[in-house]
């Protein structure tokens, strides 16, 4: 997986690179499930090669699930607590925004629940 991306996530979450890599994979997989296939493909086109498989999905329709479910899926996938998963989701989404560009990222994030979109764009989940 792209080292610079993973190092950012590890630094921002205070975790090891192994945990950061797992958080990255779980977050991108959950994101691709939550947004449309077209938006996932657009993100994948701009993402580093190593991250693209996690943003690929077979169907166009997004799977609607709330913020709490997004965080729970990441936590269970990585086997971390909810706070670590939430910090990881924020870090991965911020790093993804940096690599794909604000406009493209904003288009994808517009499909997320308000609190998850806020977390992705730099706010907190409580807004």
Automatic annotation (TrEMBL):
It comes from the Bacteria. Gene3D superfamilies: Uncharacterized conserved protein DUF2267 (1.10.490.110). It holds the Pfam family DUF2267. This is DUF2267 domain-containing protein. It comes from Phytohabitans suffuscus.
């Amino acid at each position: 997986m792209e080292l610079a991306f993973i190092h950012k996530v590890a630094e921002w979450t205070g975790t090891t690179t192994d945990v950061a890599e797992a958080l990255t994979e779980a977050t991108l997989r959950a994101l691709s499930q939550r947004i449309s296939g077209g938006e996932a493909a657009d993100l994948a086109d701009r993402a580093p090669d190593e991250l693209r498989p996690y943003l690929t999905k077979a169907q166009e329709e997004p799977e609607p699930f709330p913020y709490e479910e997004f965080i729970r899926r990441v936590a269970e996938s990585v086997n971390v607590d909810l706070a670590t998963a939430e910090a990881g989701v924020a870090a991965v989404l911020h790093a993804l925004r940096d690599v794909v560009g604000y406009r493209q990222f904003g288009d994808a994030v517009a499909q997320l629940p308000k609190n998850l979109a806020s977390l992705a764009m730099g706010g907190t989940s409580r807004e």
